[in-house]
Each structure stands twice: as C-alpha cells, then as structure tokens.
Amino acid sequence: MAGLTRTAGAFAVTPHKISVCILLQIYAPSSQMSLPFPFSSVAQHNRLGLYLLSLTKSCDDIFEPKLEELINQLREVGEEMDAWLTDHLTNRFSALASPDDLLNFFNDMRGILGSLDSGVVQDDQIILDPNSNLGMFVRRCILAFNLLSFEGVCHLFSSIEDYCKEAHSSSAQFDASNNNLESLTQYDQMDMENYAMDKATEEIEFQKSASGIVPFHLHTPESLFKATEGIPYGIHTFLLRENLEFLRVSGLLHTRKETSRTSKKDTEATPVARASSSTLEDTLVDESLFLRTNTQIQGFLMEQADAIETHGSSSSFSSSSIESFLEQLQNLAPELHRVHFLRYLNKLHSDDYFAALDNLLRYFDYSAGTEGFDLVPPSTGCSMYGRYEIALLCLGMMHFRFGHPNLALEVLTEAVRVSQQLSNDTCLAYTLAAMSNLLSEMGIASTTCVLGSSYSPVTSTASSLSVQQRVYILLKESLRRADSLKLRRLVASNHLAMAKFELMHVQRPLLSFGPKASTRHKTCPVSVCKEIRLGAHLISDFSSESSTMTIDGSLSSAWLKDLQKPWGPPVISQDSGSRKSSTFFQFCDHLVSIPGSVAQLIGASYLLRATSWELFGSAPMARMNTLVYATLFGDSSSSSDAELAYLKLIQHLALYKGYKDAFAALKIAEEKFLTVSKSKILLLKLQILHERALHCGNLQLAQRICNELGGLASTAMGVDMELKVEASLREARTLLAAKQYSQAANVAHSLFCTCHKFNLQIEKASVLLLLAEIHKKSGNAVLGLPYALASISFCQSFNLDLLKASATLTLAELWLGLGSNHAKRALDLLHGAFPMILGHGGLELRARAYIFEANCYLSDPSFSVSTDSDTVLDSLRQASDELQALEYHELAAEASYLMAMVYDKLGQLDEREEAASLFKMHIIALENPQGVEQNMA
Amino acid sequence: MVSKDSCRNEIRAAIRQLSDRCLYSAAKWAGEQLVGIEQDPSNFTPANTRFQRGSSSIRRRFSTNESISTPLPSIGFSQAATPLPEEDEAIDGDFYLLAKSYFDCREYRRASHVLRDQVSKKSVFLRYYALYLAGEKRKEEEMIELEGPLGKSDAINRELVSLERDLSALRRTGAIDSFGLYLYGVVLKEKGNESLARASLVESVNSYPWNWSAWSELQSLCTSIEILNSLNLNNHWMKEFFLGNAYQELRMHTESLAKYEYLQGIFSFSNYIQAQTAKAQYSLREFDQVEIMFEELLRNDPYRVEDMDLYSNVLYAKEACAALSYLAHKVFLTDKYRPESCCIIGNYYSLKGQHEKAVMYFRRALKLNKKYLSAWTLMGHEYVEMKNTPAAIDAYRRAVDINPCDYRAWYGLGQAYEMMGMPFYALHYFRKSIFFLPNDSRLWIAMAKCYQTEQLYMLEEAIKCYKRAVNCTDTEGIALNQLAKLHQKLGRNEEAAFYFEKDLERMDAEGLEGPNMFEALVFLATHFKTHKKFEEAEVYCTRLLDYSGPEKEKAKSLLRGIRMAQTGFPSMDLEHFPI
C-alpha cells in the first residue's frame, strides 16, 4: 500500500482527521460488546466500517471535506442513526475547549487499538488491529499529534474552531438563502470547494452522453490531410503528459529521498491550511484548501494538468479560474515550482504566448529542470548542471504549438546539442521525436537548409537529404534510443509517428545509387499496420506495471468520488450483498487503471487507423475506428483529439448521408468544441457549406466561403499548410464551377507547385486529378489525359484506392470525351473501378459513376436502347436517388435529362413527362440559388 | 522660496507630533532634515559651524552651481502653507501616558488595551497603531511556526480585518485625522486594495505633509509614471522629497537629481539628500563622484549603515580592497545584523575571491530581508564565479521576480545560460535586460557575442547589436573592432575599412596601442593597396613602421609592393587610361 511508504512526518493532523477518529471511536469502542451501542445490525456496523475505510483512504486527497459535507455523507451512510452520529460528532467537537482536551482525546484514541502482540482475541470483542488500514490510520494520527510542538497544537486547536464555526455559518446561510438570492450566490461560492473536480466529472459525463446520442457515420476523401492531424498534436500533448507523469513519479522519489535523509523539517507536513474565515471573497480557495504533503499537492497538480489538457480552454472549464487558483497556491507555497509549470500549461492551452513563455522560463530557472523531470533515476547524477536541456525541449514544443517553426527548430537543435553534451539520452530521444514531428508537420521548404550543424549522427549524412529523409532518420534514431532506454510511451508514439510517415511517404532507399534504386516506389500498408500495432502494444505493458505508476495523491480523490455513487438511494433498499461486491470491484478498478497518457496514446492509434483507412479508401473501416475512438477514449482524450474524431464523423455524414444530417451533427459538435482553442469546427463548417454551395450552384457564396477559408490560415510561411492547400483547392474548384477554366487551371498549377515545394505528396494526387477535371470540363480531353494518368500513378504508389477509383472515373470520362468510339474502353475502365466506387465512394462519386455508365451505354453505337433500356434506367434511377440527398442540381438535372431521353426513345410518354418536369425543377433551382441560401440560413 | 526658518519651525513641531504618536521612523527622518537645514550663523559660534559640511573643500569642487547662496527660481513653490494642526488636548490623558510607555516597551497589545475607551484622536490613533503592530508581530512569529518545506505559509496579520472595519467607519463619520488616514492606507495596501490605499495616503499627506512614512508608502504604490502623475498632491516642500524619491525608483535619474539639487538649497547639510544624490549618480555610473560623496557622508555620520551597501559596490567596482575592508569592519562594529552590513562583508569576500564566504554573508543578508534585491543579484554573481550555474540562475530569477526591472539580474541569467552552452535560450534574457536599459553598450555587446557563438553563428544579427553598442558610446571600444572584423569575415571590405578607420580614430584619441591597432593598420594598408589608393596605404604603412615585430616586416613588404605598383608597371596604368 502506498500509505506504508510514507513516514508519519508527512502526515498532519487536521480537523477532518479528528472527525474520522471520533467516528472510529464509535465504530470500535474499547468496551467489550459484540455490537456497540448505536448500531442495530451487523450490516449497519459494517457499512460504517466500509465508509470509514474509504475516508481513511481518501485522506491523502488535497481537499478535505468540510464538517457539513461529512455530516451529509453520514446521513446517507448512517440511516436511522444518523442523527445520533451527527450529534455525537458535534458534541465531541464542542467538548474540546482547550488544548489539553486534545491531548486527552488522543490519549483515549490509544485505547481503541488492540495491543500489537495480543494473540488472544475474544470472539465478540471489537478491536482495531493496529496493522489494519484503520489501525494504521489511528496510529499515524496519534504519532503525528505527538510530534506537534505546543504551537502546532495551538494552531490545530484554532483550526478546529474554524472548522466547526464554518459548518454553522454555512448552514445558517443555507437556511437564509431560501428567501434571499444574494446569499444563495454567496453560499455557492462557499461551496465551491471541489469546483474543479465536479466540473471535470460533469464534463466527462456530458461528453459520454453526447457521443452516445449522436448517430454518426462515415468519412471523406478530399480532406485526407485533415485526418492525419490527430497524431502530431497527440504527440505534443503526449510529450507533455509524459513529462507530467514523471513529475508524478519523481514526486514520490523526491519525498522518499527526503525521508531517508531523516531531516524532519523536510518531511514535516505543510500546514498551510486555512486562512481566517472572516471575509467572504477570500473563502473561495483558501478556506477549503488543506495543503499538506508534497505528494498530495503533486497528485493534485497532476489532476489539474490532466484537466487542463482534456478540456483545453472550453468554456465550461475556464482557464482563468485555474489561473487564480494556481496563483493562490503559489502564494501559499512559493517553493513549489511545479505550479509555474502548470501555469505554463494553462496559458499554453489558452493561447497566451507571452505568459506561457514567461512561466516556462520561470519554472526552469527555479527548478533547474530537476523538479519533476527525472527522466532517468536521480542517482545518475549530473544534477550539478541542472537539466536545462528539458527546458529547451519544452520551449521548442511551445514554439511549435504557437506556430513558430523556425524558432522551434533552432531551440530543438540547441536541445539536441545540450543533451548530447550532458549525455542525457532520454531527453535526446524525446527531442529527436519532437524534431521529427516538427519537420514532418511544418511545411519547411526543402530548399532551406534547416538542421543545425552540430548534430553529427544526422548531419553527416543529412546535408544532402530531403526533409522527409531527415524525418525518417530522426524517427529511427529516437526509436532506437527510446527502445534501449525502455521509454514505453515514447516507443509507442514513435511507432505511431513512423506509421504516419509510412502512410504519407513513398519508401525509397535513403541513398540511391545505380539502376536498382527505384525498385520499390510504394507506400506499404503492411508496414503501416505493423507500426500501428506496435504502438498499441503499450496497453499490455502498462497493465502489468500500473501499480507502480499510480500514486495515491491523484488516486485518492477517486475513492471519494466513487463513494458517492454506491451510497446513493438504491443502497437504502437493503440488497447489501450484491451492492457491496460491486463497490468493491469499483475500488479495485482504480488500482489497475491505465494512466491517462497511455489511454490517450492508444486512442491516437485508433485515430491513426481511421485516417489510414480513409486514405486507403475504406470508408466503413475508417468510420468504425473513429467510432471506437469516440466511445472508448472520448473521456480521456484531449479536447482537440476528441474534436478531430467528431470532425471525421461529421465529414463522413456529409459525404454519405447528405447535408441535412451533417448539419444536425455539426450543431452538436459546435456547442461542444467551438470554444476550444484553434478549433477546427469552423473550418469544417466552411468546408461543408462550400461543398453545398457548389452543388447548388450558388457560386457567389462559394467564393465568399473560399475567401473566409483562406483568411483562417496564418500568414507566416510554412505554417498552416493544410489549410492553405485546402483553401486554394477549393478556390480552383469554385472557378471551375464558374467555368473560368484558365483561371482555375492557373490556381491549380500554382497549388501543385506549392505542394511540390513543401513535399505534400498526397495532396499532389488530388491536385492532379483536379487539373484533369478542369481540362475535361473545358473540353480539352487530350490535355487532361496525362494529368489523370499521373494522378492514378500517384494514387498507386501511395495506395490511395478510393482516390484512384475516382481518378479512373475521370480518365474514363476523358476517353469518352475523345469521341464515342472510345465508349467501350471507357466502360471497361469504369467497370474496373466500380467495386471500389460502389463499396466505398461517397454519394457524389457514386452518382457520377452511374450517370457516366448510362452515358457510355447511350453513346455506344452498338448499344440499343430499346432492347436494353433497364440497364441504363436502373443506373440513372440510382443516381437521381443519391443526388436527392446531396442537393446536387447539376448532376441531378443531367440524370433526369438522360432519363427523359430514354423514355422518349422507348415511347413511354408519362414517364418522360415526369423526368422532364424533374429536369426543369433542378434547372430552375440551379439558376436560382438564392432561395436555397435562405433555407441554409 | 520657503524660508528656512519656517521649515525649521514646521519640522520641529512635526517631530514632536510624530513621536507622540510613536511614528518613530518618520520622526527620525524629520529630525535628520531638521539638522540638515543650514544653521543661522548669527545664533552660533563659528566653532559650531565649522563642523558643518559646507566648509569641506571636496564639496566645493563638486557643487558647481553654488546654489546655496543664489535664490532659486521658485518651481511651483507658491504653496499655500499648510497650517500645523493644533493638538486636540493640551494635557495628555493618564491612560495615554501609560499606553505610550507600554508601546515604548514594545507591549503593543497591552498599550492598545489601555486605550480602549479613549476618545481623543491621538489616543485613538495610537490604539489602532499598536493593534496593527501587535498583529504584525504575531504574523512574523506565525510565519516561522507554520513554515513548511515548500516555503512560506499564508500567515497574515489577523488584525487587518477589524482595523479596516473600524478605520473605514471612522473615515465615513469624518472622525479620522491624517495619521489615521495613513494607517488606513497601510492596512488597505496590505489587503491588496491599492487604489483605495493610494487615495487614503494622498489625503493623509495633503492634510499633514510632514509624515515621511506616509510619503514612502505612497511612493511604493507608484509603480509607473502614469500613476505618479495622476496623484493630486498639494504643493509643499515635502512633495519635492517625495518626487525625488519616486523618480529615482522609476529610473528617471536626471529628473530625480534635479529635485535633489533644488532641495539642497534649503537642506544643504542633509545626509539624506546627499545619499540619495549619490544613489542617482551611481545609477548614472559616475563612480568617482559617488565615492567622494560617500566618503564625506561617512565623515559626517560615521555610524551610518543605510545605503552603505551602495558605497561598497562602488569600492568593489574600483577594486579598493583596503577601503572596502575598512568599511566592512566599521559597519560590522556598528550593527552586524543589518542586511546592508552582511552585503558589504559579502562584497569584500567576493573581491578577495573567497566566494563561498561571500555567499554565506549574502545568505545572511537575505535571511534578514528576503526581498533584498541586490543581495540576490550579487549572490548570483558569486555562484557564477563558483561555476554553480543552477544556483546562480535560481538567485537571479528571485531577483527578477522581486523586481522585474532589474536589468542586472536579467543579464546575469543570460550569461549563465550562455555559459552552459545554450546561447539561443540566453538570447531571450539578454533581450529582456536590454529592454530595461537600452542605452548600455555592455548589454548590446553581450548579446552580440551570443549571436557570434559558433553554435548560432548569426553574424548579421551580431552586427546589428554591435552597431547599437557603438551608438551607445561603447567606452571599451570592443564594438568597433568587432564590427570591422565581422565585416572582414563576411568579405565586405569597404565596411570593414570604415570601421577599422573609426576604431583607429578612437584609439588615437584615447592614446591606446595594442594588437587591435596593428590589426587595423595592417588591414587598412592592404585594403587601400588593393584598391590602388596608394597614398592612404602608404600613410598606414609608415605608421606601422614605428613599431617593432612582425608588423614592421609586413609593413616593409607592403611598402615595397606599393612602390612596385606605382613605378614598376607603368604599362598597367596605361591600360587604365585608354587614350
């Protein structure tokens, strides 16, 4: 048990602990009775025992319940004897009139313990085994009290007075609040003790319910790049988390070290405790905060850090409240430097660059990077020089997050150099990972020479290498080091990064000599899969070692949280047997819980899986993986990861179910995520609106949205590349729809150049396809053919099956554009791509394919309508059904037109008229887009 | 112009009133100023005046503008003379007398209890003041009792709440006097209500300007010039003292000096003004002058400890070991448990190269006053000397957190990180320090050096920094030389020649010689030779001939080359001038 590892010195007597002691006295009075006085049944007695057990467990929590809350809990536990319990408790407190009474009280407490060597215990006697949990607790309390100086006793005494007074005053206020709104708010303020935690649990529950309600489905091909974003962010946050996790571990080491030094002063409690209760505005934090031991505070800080990350800067979890809390904490304990780091995190998530920078530097100035960042055991020394390389690592990641890639690169280079100098391999591994992440994420043009000159293993070969190859080397290097240092999470995240790299880049020998060099120009889905699997192995590793990872500081609050659930009303209904076992399991559950960072990492692997399926072109698989992520990891993930999952689902909805469903889902997601910093929701909304405007033929609106999209991107070079590519891609498409072919081609060409410059290979494929599309529409089929073929070959080498199918469709259309004598060839091409299109394609793609099939048949001179009309009509009917949901008037009109023609040939006049009226309707809608816009608004 | 007599009378009355209310430090300050006023020569024998400072020959040398005799232009001294408040009771009550003696024995709570039912304003003030001090005393004790491993506890003065309640009630009914307002301001300040505290203190000093403690509290609340200018203060000569001090804290040293110079017209012998002037001069880096002023100050007031840490800094900078040890010995005998004394001793050990001992004394100074800014910075310097960089960084950072404008500490942080091979990280700190002192060439040079390190090698940025350093009149001449060299390295010979010439001019003006000079001469000679400006080249070569060593040989060969070029190959010249 974690409790054993701490000495009594780290354990301070507080009024709450005295309450627990009083209750223990009731539970196990020194008299010899099988069932002590107030209890009417053994079950009742046991229930109090279990309650006390959880209370003692939760004593390591940073917040202690106030007397009033304790009484409320007692009311639920104690059932009919609650009044007696409460009375007894308050009477005992009011009986404490002088410090001497306290002394006597603790002397009495000694009596309820059995003697250590007593082998003979009578059956009906209730005796607290000194080695049991409760016994240990009592012994620790007694010891801690005996260690107190007289001043300490006086302080304890006066804090007991406050403890009781507070309960009175707040209950009095509560009574008054029934008829007075003002005092109600005051009461709320007073009661905000657990504000952070309550908020957090609420938020999590809300998330759960939200993800449960929304009927989400699948995905989208053209925003390929969008999808892969989850990973880099994941790594950044992951690295932060990793650091924090170490904060936690080293916290324990730290305290242990202190105790072994037997310096009493260090291990003594930090009785910062309560300020005077006289002013209301001060009560918010001071009042409720019992700062006691280092571990407790650190555990608490860990929780706060998790909360900051999980909620980002969403409105329900305001960063300012955390900030003010941290400020107070810092005032109380100025030597607790970790608070600075937490403030940095908080500022980072609320996008306050200067404050974040300031706090980061301050943290490292004070702690020399040694407090909490013992990535390697402290015994290896080098504390003489501090660990400032970690400062560099953090600073680099901060610059990365704020979008200063060049600064970040400089700083990380320095970090590499310093960690090499100080031979801090762990930090080096992390730095390399961060660096590769930076290089792969930020569009750093290959022409600018980036990597600093000093990192020899890389630079000796690197000077001639492209950015991709450097990323690969860095990743490999980091993976190797992490593997040898057994940094499990880093290994896992490196595997994920590697998977992403494999996914996005063509395998090519690093140094290409001779004719054999170009043997394999493909991405390899198998290796992607392998890397993802390796990344996910983490979970099995952690379930075996979790016991060492979780520390009571953060865990103990979970004890109390659980406590409130099983003791709810249903407990009263006396089916105690099963109830208790379930409680027990819940308690056990916490002991084997997986650290949040691990869960997050595994979640990231699912997101990556979804993305890779998206790229490879399997819509159902992508959707499934996203859903797994949203349901299983939604509550442990950071808000931006969760947002990404939602985005994917909504995109899928838009493509496969039409806009109506997508907008409904978007509304829900908006409420949830719009306040998150750097929210992608707005981007998604614009994308969907643009898509819809294009389909409806509302080109002005489309153009406006395009401009807005472009405005979202940062103006700095090499930053927000995906966004910029997306914006110009959409601009080209808008121009294409407006039939301004040459301008569209210009935009697409320059876009292709940008993609080439920044090595965005996968985007190149879609740009090429767009170019082919432009030439097709402009009637220049011959010019379009090479683009379509190039696009197909790109798709092949990256295994982008769905995109390839759609390129094949374009190719077929181009062939048909060359003349009806090519209809047969076009049809063959189409039929080759059909399985992929029908199985995984979106509504638009499918409709296009159907219409094109009909077109092929109709233009084929050897095909006769009258004999084989069903083939054509079936396709057309399918197409118009799917276009209905999409509101794609142009294509729908084409389908209806073809249908009318076929019916005309067949001589079915009624059907012809029907199709013709449909045609007319779509044409009118297309020419009059304003009406549609009003609907949209 | 206020007459010296009226000043004298005002202060005399004020001292009595202040000590009646046990505001001892304000009374002490007022007393110092009282004897600082030039005595009326008619009342005293010449023997008496001889000891006054005006007779000092050193002083004459530095007080150039003989301001003592000439009437000054009255800058805003057309003040309505603030009438001295009448004492509200002619005879002090018995309880008051008892309470005051309790107070003098530092039994504050007892004093306050004795005065519980008294209604006279003096008694009421003393009651609250004693209560406040009792709370402060308890706070200090609690701080030690409750101190944990993570630093201070949240011990607070528990009387503040009741004090604030009572004083605000008094203020509302108008039953509060200016001393009460001062106490109210102090209480508000401690409760963190700065704007109200400021208002209360302004009211206090406007009605009773002679309470220097109130002025000092007000000054500590003026953190920016905007706040200072927004105060609505009556004109009084005390205001000039206040402004002088406030300007100094806001780093407006010349304005502050002007105020003190003016005040010296009345308080010609005030030690306080002398020390303040020395402080301002120190910030302007006029060390020689400051040293003389402090010497004089010590002659007149040999047991003074205040501000002597500054003097020790000056002695340190001038490396005057003996004088520093003499000073240290003296303050040690006077009062060894003053932070200033510890700091002086620390400085002495530092100068002697005994850094561990120096750190020990700085630590002691900090134990006595945790917010003692210069001790943190100096301790940082010591740790740097001891190569204990993390400790140095910690010390500097504490200094910066106490006063974010302390450019020395920012600079120290930058240096420490640079020492650890993190020049890019260090740059941020240098930038900070330059932000607070943009006119110091040393800072710019340090930053340039940082850019120049082989890890960064950002020479363009380094050049920019050196240029700024040159503009700030770089006394050591590093910047010009470096600029020339950097340009040479980057192959910009024109610029390099320009800066070498400038550097040469500077060295000539200061009569310096050395390797830098040879380097400049050699470069310039070869440069002009290659550009066919033989006359200039010859001038530099002949200058080189004056020195011995390899440079002389070099010059000779250069000269030979020049002759050859001028006479040996006339055909080349013909090419240049086609007919």
Automatic annotation (TrEMBL), chain A:
InterPro entries: Apc5 (IPR037679), Apc5_dom (IPR026000). The keyword Cell division applies. The keyword Cell cycle applies. It comes from the Eukaryota. One of its GO terms (biological process) is protein K11-linked ubiquitination. Residues 257-268 have a biased composition (Basic and acidic residues). Pfam families: ANAPC5. One of its GO terms (cellular component) is anaphase-promoting complex. Residues 340-440 form the Anaphase-promoting complex subunit domain. Residues 257-277 are annotated as: Disordered. Keywords: Cell cycle, Cell division, Mitosis, Ubl conjugation pathway. Belongs to the APC5 family. This is Anaphase-promoting complex subunit 5. It comes from Arabidopsis arenosa.
From TrEMBL, chain B:
One of its GO terms (cellular component) is anaphase-promoting complex. Keywords: Cell cycle, Cell division, Mitosis, Repeat, TPR repeat, Ubl conjugation pathway. It comes from the Eukaryota. One of its GO terms (biological process) is protein ubiquitination. Pathway: Protein modification; protein ubiquitination. TPR repeats lie at residues 339-372, 373-406, 407-440. The keyword Nucleus does not apply. Pfam families: ANAPC8, TPR_11, TPR_8. SMART domains: TPR. Transmembrane segments: none annotated. Residues 7-278 form the Cdc23 domain. The keyword Repeat applies. Belongs to the APC8/CDC23 family. This is Cyclosome subunit 8. It comes from Arabidopsis arenosa.
